[in-house]
User: Fold these one by one.
Assistant:
Number 1:
Amino acid sequence: MVRVDDWAWSTTNWLRRAWACSSSGTAATADASASPPPTAMSTGKTERAAGAGAGAGAGAGASAGAGAGAGASAGAGVGAGAGEGEGGGILFEGVGFRYPGKEAWALRGIDLAIPTGESVALVGENGAGKTTLVKLLTRLYEPTEGRILLDGRDLRDIEVGELRRRFGVLFQDFNQYQLRVRENVGFGSIEHVDDGARVQRAVERGGAGEVVAAMTAGLETPLGRWFQDGTELSGGQWQKIALARAFMREESDILVLDEPTAALDAEAEHAVFERFRELSHGRTTIVISHRFPTVRMAKKIVVIDHGTIVEQGTHDELVALDGKYARMFALQAEGYR
Ligand SMILES: Nc1ncnc2c1ncn2[C@@H]1O[C@H](COP(=O)(O)OP(=O)(O)OP(=O)(O)O)[C@@H](O)[C@H]1O
Ligand SMILES: [Mg+2]
C-alpha cells in the first residue's frame, strides 16, 4: 500500500496538538513535501498527491524490462545497471505507473540510474510524467509494475521515516498552510519545528529572509487570509516559503525541486538556483524545469515524452543528437530572441 498516511502521521499529530492549543482552530492543508495531514481541512489548493495516493499500489510484479522504446539514448552507460548490491544511488527498473481508475499509463518502461551525487534534470512537455516520476521516487505513489531501488534496496523495504529523512522535496503542487511562518517552514522536518535557528536558516536558504524580516512578528507571523491579522503572500513569496520547507531537512542527501521557480521572477529564479547549487554539493539533485538555463546546468538531462524516457545525456550531447531535446531547446531559444 501507498504510505501517504504514514508520511502524514507526524504532521497530523502535530496539528492535533496545535489545534488543542489554538483558540482560532485554524487548520492546515495537505502538502506532499511536508507529510499531508489527511484529516486536515483544505484551503482549496490542489491536493493531487494526497488524494490520489490511496489504492495505487496494486501488483508490483516483475516487469520484463519493457525498455524505453522510442527514441535514441545519448550518453554512454546511463541505462539501468548501476545495480542492486553495488550501493550508490537511485535505480528505476522497468517502472510503470497508472493512476487509480485510469486506463492510460502515466509512466511506462522507465529504466533510469542516478548515481549518488549526480545532478539530474527532467524535461518534457506538460503531462509527460515528470512529476509522477518524482512522486514515485519519494513513494507518494508506488509503481504499478517494476521497482525502484535506493542504494540497492527496494523503496518498499525502507522504513518510511528513514526514507523521508533522505529527501528534501519541493513539489509543484506545494501547499500553503494557514498557520505561522514557523510551521509553514518547520513542517519540512516536524521534529525541528521548535528549533528557531534551524527554521531561520531554512528561511534564508529558501530565499524568504527578506519576506519574513519585513513581517512584524517574524517567524511567529500567521500567514493567509484565515487569520484576522494574517499576512497574505504573493505566489512567488509562498514558493519561497515552500522552498524553505524543503531546506528544513538538513540531513537529507537527495534534493528534489519540481519547477521551484514557476512563480518567481527571473532575478529570484537565479538566486534560488545559485543557492540550490551551493547546497547541493555532495548531494543527489533532481530538478524539473521548463527553463533551459536551469536544465542545462544538470550533469544529466533526462527527456520524458508521453510517459517514457526518450533521450538522456548532457546538454551538449543532446543538442548534438538533434532530437526532441534539441527541438525544444531551439524553440525556447527562439522565444528569447
Ligand atoms: N492525480 C492524478 N490522477 C490522475 N491522473 C493524473 C494525476 N496526476 C497526473 N495525472 C496524469 O498523469 C500524466 C502525467 O502527469 P504529470 O503531472 O506527471 O506530468 P508532468 O510532466 O509533471 O507535467 P507538467 O509539466 O505539466 O507539470 C498526465 O497525463 C496527467 O494528466
Ligand atoms: Mg509536473
Note: The pocket of adenosine-5'-triphosphate (ligand 1) is lined by residues 48, 52, 99, 102, 106, 124, 126-132, 172 (CB under 6 Å).
Number 2:
Amino acid sequence: MTDPTGPPARTRRPRYSGKNPRRFQDKYKELNPDRYGPEIDKVLASGKTPAGMHRPIMVDEVLACLRPVAGDVAVDCTLGGGGHTRALLGRVLPGGRVIGLDVDPIELPRTEGRLRSEGFGPESFVAHQGNFAGVHKALAAEGHAAANIIFADLGVSSMQLDNPGRGFSHKESGPLDMRMNPSRGVTAAQLIERLSEDALATLLEENADEPHAALIAGILKGPTPGPLDSGTPTMLTTNAVNDLVRQALLSAFPRLTPADATLSVRRTFQALRIAVNDEFAALDALLRSLPQCLAPGGRVAILTFHSGEDRRVKKAFQAGLRDGVYATVADEVIRATPEERRANPRASSAKLRWAVRS
Ligand SMILES: C[S@@+](CC[C@H](N)C(=O)[O-])C[C@H]1O[C@@H](n2cnc3c(N)ncnc32)[C@H](O)[C@@H]1O
C-alpha cells in the first residue's frame, strides 16, 4: 500500500468522463486486454498504470536478493497480479516450483487463470487462497518441508484499489468495506460503528501516525448528516469519509492546505484497512514462522510500504541474526531506482529487506 506520508499517489489515466457506460468494468479499455492490447501498451508507455492492472515493484532488486535458481521451491506470499511470481518462475524452472498465496478470493482465480494460460501447469505453479500467516500449512499441503525462497509484497494491489466495490480507495465511490477477503471479518464501516471514539483515535495514531487522529475519530463517530440518495447511511461509503474528514480538517485548521487534508484522508483509509485486515498480526505471524519455513541457506525478501511494517521486518531480521537463525541480513533498506519511482510513483515508498537462513 502506498505510504500516505510519502509522495503523491500514482498518476492515473484520466477517468472516463461520459455518462455511459457507467459500470466499472466498462469504464476502462484496459480491463479488456484481449480487445484493447494496444491501448494498454499506450497507457504503459505514457508512464501511467492501466486501471485494474498491477505493476510489480523492484523486480530486479527482489531477484538480486532472492537469487532464485532452477530447482528452487519458492513461496510468493502475496500473489496479487502475479508479477513477482512470473519473474520467479522465469528463474526456478526447470525443476522448481512457485507456491502463490493470497487472501483475496476475487483476484486469486483471475491471476491463477492468467498464469495457467501462459502455460504454467500445477507442477510449476500452484495457487492457495489463504493468509500468509499460515505459510507453513501451505508448504506442508504441497508436500514441501521448507522453501528455498520466500517473498512478500505487502499491502493491496492496484486491482483491489481500483475496484470501487471493494472500498479501499478514497478516490472511488463505494461501500466502506476494505476486506481483502470479503467473506470474512467486519467491514471498515462496521469497525467504526463498534469502536469507541478513543479506540478509533488510537487506531489512527498507531496504524498511520495520523496527527489529527482525535478530530477525525470524532468526525467518524459523530452523527451522520443524513442518508445519501441511495438511502445508505452516510458513513458507510468511501465518499462520505473522504468528504467529511476533508471538510472537518479544513474548517478546524484554516492554514491546512487541500493537499494536507488529502494526506490525512489517505492515512485514515490506511489505518482502517490495516485494522480491518489485521495486517500487523499477519505480518508478525509470517515473521515468526520464517525460520521453520526456510531451508538452510534459504532466502527471504519483504517489500514494505510504511514504517509500521518496515520496523517489524527490521526487528525480526536483526533478532534472527543475533540468535543465529539468519546467517546474514540486509544492513540497509533497498529502495527503488529514480527511474522506477518516476515511472511508478507507488515504488517511492517501497522498502526492501532480505535475510538468509543459516
Ligand atoms: C501489493 S499486492 C502484491 C502484488 C504482486 N507482488 C504482483 O506482482 O502482482 C499485495 C497482495 O497481497 C495480498 N495480501 C495482503 N495481505 C495478505 C495476507 N496476510 N495473506 C495473504 N495475502 C495477503 C493482497 O490481497 C494483495 O493481493
Note: Residues 1-22, 226-233 have pLDDT under 50 and may be disordered.
